[in-house]
């Protein structure tokens, strides 16, 4: 039985006997020299990994002169010149090679790197090879991360609630830190390092200035010490008004000399305690957070203020581009671009703008954010949401790497065809020094970390894509399933198929054909397309679907908000033209009549009903597939996933019924015959209230 705590690092004994014997006979001694904390972590991981996978005691031998090379061999003695056969030439700091090396007719597995952390990454990769039952015969791997900053963003509050968290409370126990080091902190670091995540922002972007006080910094320091051997840097969210709230100043104006000095002093204090501190992540002038605009200054002034303070220590500012104003009546989708574009090229070298994958907000499907195709002179990092605020919380199975892949592969056409978002965020399109990818974490105190056992795959996949944004979602699913559950193809193949389809299923039963942000208010749990009474227009679902008796959808072409003009001409043209606009984005960009004819010949109205139904049917298929997997999965996790899939089905039907009944009040047309009739009335769905749905903060009540 597995409760899932061990994640993809469960190191189950190799089930194939022939392979097990082969591994056992060729992997008997590990030669390692170093004794740094990272080397000790490597040794521990190999002890655990090889011990579990091979179910045997592995001998460790100190071997002088190896530096950052480790050798796993069948032999008790190695010739002294062995070390010279592998060099780490051409590797960057975090890179590594893994090779089957021959010497004197004997074969050994060698992992080698420039720095300690590269060896750690190489070790995890080596263990992954064994976990996925790979052959050791001709290994020849060279890996270097394509993105520099690979971070999790925790929206964790100091009271341990997690904004948009659905897997329990925050894993940071601020009360018992710094003296009590929960084993979870170490296992969290191992899990992240195993996929190459090299940073963590431990506090919510809706920030609390207290984290910057000495009392809390002591606690952050303790976490940083746990994470350091695993190559993970700690970052903090900086509340822009901190100089007032904890510094006793009267202003937080970024051009005020006292404020400038305050941030310099604070930053110095942090680096004295945490010499490898990563830097600050800032949400400013967005959804009520304070920022430079409170003082008539710009985002540029704000970001550069902090950049100056961090610069002596090589720290970075991750400045969020998720801004929209309650005073700006223009299409919310246009606002970030309008605000940041004029500043392109003016930020200090250690500023990177953190841009959400789409211009609205982590919807089940969004076209890529236009900023990715428009700021050649500013480093841009990607912000994905791993937690499922808009994809069914931790009760729905929706494999997010599929969504991430879709965005990364999108073509911005900034330099003609092939200028993909992946190339923008890894810096290769414009030769940027800084590059990054952030994922809003889905981790909490639940035993299995993520609530849904398959939520682990989203964390895993995010890390793998941050390391290499060109990986395919399918390969990631394959890998994760083998590590987490089983190497049996009879299990891996069907479940992989289920994972790959799962995200589309959610799109279909929640937001088909480009619909977006029709979630119930505040908590975002379940459908609420009828909501239209909130103080800010762009918080209302009716703002986004614009259904009326004529039709439905948000016109973002020239006849509407013209948000499409923010894309390159090729992209604008493709989305504008109804012939070429992919139907999955139809209502994102167009307001169309209910009887508009879709590519399959059906009306838009019927097409909507069919998509909602398809989503429901896809969940039924998922249930079937999972049921057949019973022989391959331990009872505990099998039962867990079965229960969750049943919840998912119920909620998929709820979405279909509530949305179609509501939109029918405008279309006044019959449901398509293939659609199952709604179970309840529209009034019933409208009456459902969930004041204690998880993940909300009082601010949203
Ligand atoms: O999606 C919205 C969420 C807020 C979140 C905000 C953001 C942290 O509903 O909970 O606040 O985005 O990304 O800043």
Folded structure, characterized:
With 701 residues, the chain is an alpha/beta fold. The protein has 3 domains: 17-143, 2-Layer Sandwich (Chitobiase, domain 2); 149-484, Glycosidases (TIM Barrel, Alpha-Beta Barrel), CATH 3.20.20; 508-554 and 591-687, Alpha-d-glucuronidase, C-terminal Domain. The protein is 36% helix and 11% strand. The chain has helices spanning 17-26, 37-54, 116-131, 183-195, 214-227, 242-245, 257-273, 299-310, 332-340, 401-409, 421-425, 455-467, 473-484, 489-510, 541-545, 569-576, 586-589, 604-628, 635-667, 682-687, and strands spanning 29-32, 59-62, 69-73, 96-103, 106-113, 140-143, 149-153, 199-201, 233-237, 279-282, 316-320, 351-356, 380-385, 436-440, 551-552, 592-593. The strands form 3 sheets. The chain has an 8-stranded parallel barrel. Strands 2-1-3-5-4-6 form a 6-stranded mixed β-sheet. The two termini are 40 Å apart. The model has no long low-confidence stretch (mean pLDDT 96). 4-O-methyl-beta-D-glucopyranuronic acid (GCW) binds next to loops. 4-O-methyl-beta-D-glucopyranuronic acid binds at residues 155, 163-164, 205-206, 283, 287, 322, 361-362, 389.
Per-chain topology:
Layout: H1 17-26, E1 29-32, H2 37-54, E2 59-62, E3 69-73, E4 96-103, E5 106-113, H3 116-131, E6 140-143, E7 149-153, H4 183-195, E8 199-201, H5 214-227, E9 233-237, H6 242-245, H7 257-273, E10 279-282, H8 299-310, E11 316-320, H9 332-340, E12 351-356, E13 380-385, H10 401-409, H11 421-425, E14 436-440, H12 455-467, H13 473-484, H14 489-510, H15 541-545, E15 551-552, H16 569-576, H17 586-589, E16 592-593, H18 604-628, H19 635-667, H20 682-687
Parallel strand pairs: 1-2, 7-8, 7-14, 8-9, 9-10, 10-11, 11-12, 12-13, 13-14
Antiparallel strand pairs: 1-3, 3-5, 4-5, 4-6, 15-16
Helix pairs in contact: 2-3, 7-8, 10-13, 12-13, 13-14, 14-18, 18-19
The protein binds 4-O-methyl-beta-D-glucopyranuronic acid.
4-O-methyl-beta-D-glucopyranuronic acid (GCW) binds next to loops.
